[in-house]
Amino acid sequence: MFGTTNAFGSRPNSIFSSGTANTSQNPLNDIEVPSPPDDTVEALKFNPQIAGQPVLLVSGSWDSVIRVWQISESGQCEAKAQQNVTGPVLDLDWLDVSSIIILGNRDLDPYLLLACFIIYNTKPC
Question: How many distinct structural domains can be found in the chain?
């Protein structure tokens, strides 16, 4: 039932053996981002999905930096922008279905960021 009865670790059919390993490289479909935050992440949000718009991921952290990445359909991630703020970012979110990011930091300074300007370097959408 559990393979041979030889010494511990030599049971090729047991659950502890090194028989067939799981060869899946990314079973949870994790996304690895370039230039990750240097400190604890407090908020991590995807933009609302709108047809024809890119998938964006924004993070806010205790290093007082907001970072924006664009995620391709294949799961590849490209750093698009980062913005320093005056204190650690405690929360952020996308404003409705627009491309505006609203956030709050420890210093209670209000911020609104236009993601389309950051991403496309164009006038506000």
Answer: 1
